[in-house]
Each structure stands twice: as structure tokens, then as C-alpha cells.
Sequence to fold (610 residues):
Amino acid sequence: MREVYPYETLGGDVALLVGDIEIDGQAAPTWAENEGRQIDLSHPEKAGWKSLRVPVTVMGPPTELEARAKAGGAPRAHVVVQCGFTNARQSVALAPDGDGNRWIGDLEMDRRFWFGRVEVAAFITDEVDGRRRMVGWADRWSILLDDFPDSPVRGALTVKWRNFDDKETDPPSLAAAKGEPYFHLIDPNQPVLYLNSAFPGLEPLLGNRSGRRDHSEQALHDQVRSMIATKFFLGAANAALAGVEVDEDGGCNWPQSEWQRELLEALLHRAFPKRAAADALEEVMALRRTDDGAGIVENLLITAVDRHVGAARLLKLSIRNLGTDAAETVQEQPI
Amino acid sequence: MTPLKEMLVTPELPPSFLEEGIGFDPVPHESAFARGIDTEPLRNLVHEAMKRFPDDPGRSDAWLAPRVHYALRLSRREAARRSVWTWLGIALLPSYVRWRFPAGGSTPIERFTGREDKHALGRLWWGAELMRNGRNYEPVCAGFSMQDIPNTWMRLHAFHHRPLVQAVLQELAVFNDGKPATSDQVNALAKAMNTTAYTVLLDAIAPDPEFEGGDLEAWLDEEVDETLVLDQEPNGLLEDGVPEPELNAMRELVREVAARTPAMTKSRTDPKAAA
Fold:
């Protein structure tokens, strides 16, 4: 949903493009992905990079920018880099390149100031009411460092196999889940799903394999996967909501944890597809404060999580798989 | 020497630990930190603060925050690891956490393991990192003298913009005819400035300079002598502060926003509110 501003903003698209990046002075073109707007530093992270140079280009709608310039405006472009984990912010004023709708520059980043996930935003500004205000925004880029797990929303949930029966197992809290198939660690920094390798049959059922599963095994695999993911996202959503702070006037502050914010945004979009995320969050937090609100919010979350996980789709596939199996096997005892 | 450690997984803390500091053994949960850092200077300074401010833990913040930053030499990247703060809160200095945030007998768990603006020690370190002006820790003392600065402003993305931070601290420190802003004023300005930052690009008014960190390595490696800062203010990392033109540009913006925020001007002229 588009935000509404009390002044005229650009209607056309603003794009942030990333060129061939350099790591420690060496070209590393393959790690920037324009389509997904991500720079993945997993490989250099392991090797311990020191400095990063990212050439950036910002482009805006030519006709609108030309009209602004003719009307006495002076559009400019900035790129701002922010990292919630290191509370760091760095900006670059870009240089004009061409006919007034294109700007270029370089981001120079020193590794010691960044951690986890870094957001790169681009803005076009112009003079409005005596102040240089934002009139155009590009979709943000992410720089992913390998010291932080993938977001469980955009990427796969981080999964680790551990023997819960082992007294030396790491983390030790897994011992409390001995005999159970899995344990969710819903940590604001690092959410992890631990699977119990000592649980009979679980590893063959859920582990990676090269060959295809037969129909019934695939059905069970999908249902177990769906169940675990549903429980995780529901628990994580409740933890994320607990991290929302509400002002006296009802305004809400998103949780500090990036993945918690992303998860809430994704689920709120599923629950309220026509509302801006911030408005939806305020409504949910207001509901939670009413007498019956907690239950209503939980119902909304359950449906949103089911859709997020694709529970209905997986169940349909499982039923179809079982149906195929049933046709091929003889039922000894009808239910 | 007591080397810095981490707790990679946040352990479950029993109520007896939150209430009385007993019933939990942190040792099985500890991991070595990647760099050798002695935490004894930090511990000594924290204990010194507890001695100096026995009856007023809140007032110790302004004294202790620059010293925590001085004694615990971390890069931002290292300080971003919450596992470090978890270990410091649970294993090294739990008595300080309970002393600073007694909360009626059971210290909230977020003061041991929470995010940087809630964690008892993390808020001091990060507050100092965000509010120091180059090597000058004076703005840190000013910021922690107004408790709503760490409690409210530190949550805002805008507070990562270094020229804005210095401008806000300078304006609020003398907002009421040379006296500090009230709690209401600090919070009202935070809200108004946050709203302003949705439309005004702070960096277009005053660029937030590139992180250079040229002397960071030397500062990280320097041996810490906490006895030098018991009775005098420490100096921070040798680094330039916010340049005057950028600072003045942001002060102008802060004044402008304050002037059109009714809660600020109302309480400024209300002697009771400003008291």
C-alpha cells in the first residue's frame, strides 16, 4: 500500500541498482543479485573480509523530475545504509549522472561496523516548504552477512539436528525436550529449529535425500513439516507481538529484531491484505487490550500462519498422495 | 584476568535467580569470545559505581556509562552480539543488574538478557557509543542525566544519525532557560522528530559521515587502566566529532521541530512542568 504524504511525491518508479561490488579491492561481481535485491556476503564473510565497495545507481521518472527542475526544484539522491544490530547509519550523497533522472556513487563499508543484516535505502529529495524532503523511494536492498541466520520468513528456517538424549548436547536446554521430536529456539537474535536425531525414524523422514519418497511417506513428511512450521511461526509471532511497544496514544513501535519485524509484517499482510502494515499492527495491539481481543488476535494469527506455511496446500497434496496410495493398496480393515 | 565470554543460547533463568541471584549455574552455558578481552576493569568500575551511588542507582548511569564504554573495548560488530551481553548480565555482573533494576524484588529478565536499550549493561555501553562525540564522553553524561534519552530516543532509527544525536543533546540539556528538558519534553521531541524523519531526509541536511575506524584497532588493543578514570572523566576513541556546520544545521532543525510541537512549548512556559 502506498503511503500518503502531505505534499506531492513522485508517482513513477524509483530504482536502486547495484553494480559490480569489490571486496578488499577485488572484484566480486557474482554476489550481488539485482532481482532479489540482495548482496550475499556468505563466502567472503567466512574468509574474513575487511572492506566493501558497492557502486550504486539511482534512477527516477524522467518526465516528473524534469518538470520539478523546470519549476525551480533541485532533485537530489542519497543512499542510506542502516544496521539495526550495530545501530549504525551511513549515507552517501550521489552525484548527478546524465539528464537529471540518474545519480551514481559508491558505498564504502568497513566490516567492523556492521553485523547480521544491513539495509540499503535510496531516496530522491527536493525542496518542499523550505525543507529538503523525500519525494521518491526505491525498494530497499539487503546485505546479508553470514554471522546471522537467514530470515525464517524470506528464507528457510535454520534447522539443526541434535541428539536430545546426549547429556553433552549443545545447547544444554535440549535435554529438557528429551523424547520429543523437535525443539524451537525462538531467540530474538537467532531462531533455530532443533530436530532430535535420537527420535526413531525422524531423520529418514525429514532429512535431505536424493531419491523420491513414496506417496504415503511424502504425505507424512509434508504434514510433519507443516505442523512444525506452523507451531514455530505461531510461537514466533506471539513472541514478536510481545516485543511491540505501544505508546500512550496507541502508536506502535515494531520489535527491534529484524526477523520478528519481517514475520509480523508478512503475517499482518495475510491477515489484513488491504491495510498498511503499521495500521494493521496498531489494530492488532488495540485488539489485544480488549476483553475478548487476545482470542481474536490468536484466531487471526492461526489463519495467517496457516496461509504463510501453505498448510492447506500441503494437506491437499497429502490427501491426494494418500488417495493414490489407497488405490494401489488393499485396505484390510475399513475404518 | 577474567576473559570475556558469550552465552550463545539464552538459558532459562529460574525465579530464584531473578529474585536472589541463586539457583542457576552459568558455567555450562559459556563459550569463549573470539578476542581476548579482560573484564576485570569493567567489573571494578561497576562495583565502584555501586559504592558511590548506594541509594540512587539511577543516578549512577551518567557516571558509569562512559566508563563501561571505556573499559569494555568492543567494535560495534562485536557489541552487536547479544550473547556477549547475556554473559555479562548473567555470569559476570548479575549483582549489578539486580541492584540497578530491583523492580520490587524480581528483576525483569530483559535487564539480564534483553536488547540493547533494555539490558542493564548494554544500554550503558550502547548509550555511550551512540552519544559520545568523537572521543568526548561529555554528551553521554548529559544524555544519561535525562533518563528518557536512553529510554526513548535510543529506540529510534533517527538516533543513529550522529549529527542529530549531538544536536538533540545540546538543545535538550539547556532547553528550559539553561536547565535540562523535562521528561515530557524529551519524549515529546522524540515523537515529533521521529515523525519529521519520515519526510525530511536528515542526511540531506547534515551528512552522517562514513565510519572510518582508523584508530579503532589501537583503541581496541590498548590496555585499560580503570584506576585512571575513577576520579576523572575518561577519553574515548581518538576520532573526530561531528563538524560544526553539520551540528548547527541539525540544531536548527531540532529548534524548528521543538517550536512547532505544542507539548514542548507548553511545558516550557509552564513553571510546574519545567521544574
Summary: The first strand of chain A starts at residue 15 and ends at 18. Chain A touches chain B through 46 residues (CB under 8 Å).
